[in-house]
Design goal:
Length: 366
């Protein structure tokens, strides 16, 4: 095994490529943008749309194993490759199921995993109000969601989703949002990263606190759920499980079949990062140790504050702070709320890590 093919070349692909190189692998990457963050680091590039079936096959011809960093890759093309014996991880069947949020919810609840009540749009009334109308696929960072407070909101919600196939989900009055990144080998060996709390602003991940400041009972419940979820999937790789904590309950919100923003802290804070674990898993290597090597870590995303050419500034000052690491993804253009980079601060307590990360963030502009 020498070359890993990655479909998708954003920041996740960039950090995966770093991890692959550190383990001695080459990376061939496919993305529509020639200088996308990951494409800048790859050893070989295929410039093509995510859905391009022929380009996906060409990618396979150039590598020993294929994986992906975005859900909008061509699951059918990957399934055909997999069917013909080419290794694709996680399996395209798992990807296809997760990609459709309604199938995903049905799959999770059929495996006994607690989720928010959900219904087809025509039966949404049975959930009561408010509910969330969600696009079944394609919407991430909350872009495919519309809140419905009363029957008068339905037309606007459908318009916001531009008529995309949707389903309805009961609104969860959660206390906290939590996430767990976990990894499995093709043989079913599972390792689980520490539970984190995720804090969103405008439906976009703003901050991640590791370990999550919750009771040991909640942390154990979340871990148990992560284990059940991972055991129910096929194929190797990292999965991220986003959850709601309501009182003493934990509900699964959604799964991503890939490395995830809620696991970026692991680069500095864990013995083995989520990116290295993913590469190890897809390359058939034994998994590393995902536990934390520092008491606490806080990650803050660096989102674009304006529209125009990116002009990263203040990074050296931020990195002078002890325990602070700044990651800039190399995107040419900044846009309001676009993920341009992130900061991880490690410290002895979550409070200290959070103050450090916030201070560092205030020094950086892009
Ligand atoms: P999602 O597209 O499911 O990842 O949702 C993005 C964000 O919207 C979540 O992180 C929550 O903050 C919020 N959200 C999603 N589903 C619900 C729900 N059923 N009830 C309340 N908030 C939700």
């Amino acid at each position: 095994m020498k070359t890993i093919g990655i479909a998708g070349g954003g920041q996740l692909g960039r950090m995966l490529t770093d991890a692959a190189h550190a383990l001695g692998f080459k990376v061939v990457m496919m993305d529509p943008t020639p200088n996308a963050p990951g494409m800048q680091m790859a050893d070989e590039r295929i410039v093509a749309a995510y859905g391009d079936a022929n380009a996906t096959k060409r990618l396979a011809e150039k590598c020993d194993v294929l994986t992906f960093e975005i859900e909008s890759v061509n699951a059918d093309a990957l399934e055909e490759l997999s069917h013909n014996g080419f290794p694709v991880h996680p399996t395209p069947r798992t990807l296809a199921m997760i990609k459709d949020k309604l199938y995903q919810k049905q799959f999770l609840s059929s495996h006994g995993i607690p989720v928010a009540p959900f219904a087809l749009p025509e039966e949404a009334e049975t959930l009561g109000y408010p509910y969330v109308l969600k696009a079944r696929s394609g919407g991430f960072d909350g872009r495919g969601n519309a809140l419905v407070n009363s029957p008068e909101d339905i037309a606007d919600a459908v318009a916001k989703l531009r008529g995309a196939p949707a389903y309805a989900e009961g609104f969860v009055h959660f206390d906290k949002e939590l996430a767990i990144v976990a990894v499995r080998t093709a043989e079913g060996d599972i390792k689980i990263f520490p539970l984190v709390e995720t804090i969103h602003k405008n439906h976009i991940c703003h901050m991640v606190l590791a370990p999550a400041p919750v009771s040991t009972e909640i942390a154990q419940r979340a871990r148990d759920l992560a284990e059940i979820v991972l055991a129910s999937f096929e194929g190797a790789g990292v999965f991220a499980i986003e959850m709601f904590n309501v009182g003493s309950e934990v509900l699964v919100n959604e799964i991503a079949p890939r490395v995830h923003n809620s696991g970026h802290f692991s680069i500095e804070a864990c013995h083995t990062s989520q990116f290295e674990e993913h590469i190890r898993a897809v390359a058939g290597m034994p998994l590393g140790d995902p536990s934390m090597k520092v008491p606490a870590a806080v990650m803050i995303n660096i989102l674009g504050e304006r529209d125009g050419q990116a002009m990263p500034d203040g990074i050296e000052d931020a990195e002078k702070l002890p325990g602070v690491k700044v990651h800039i993804y190399g995107k040419t253009d900044t846009r309001k709320e676009r993920k341009m980079g992130h900061i991880t601060a490690t410290a002895d307590t979550l409070d200290d890590a959070r103050s450090l990360a916030e201070h560092a963030r205030s020094l950086v502009s892009i």
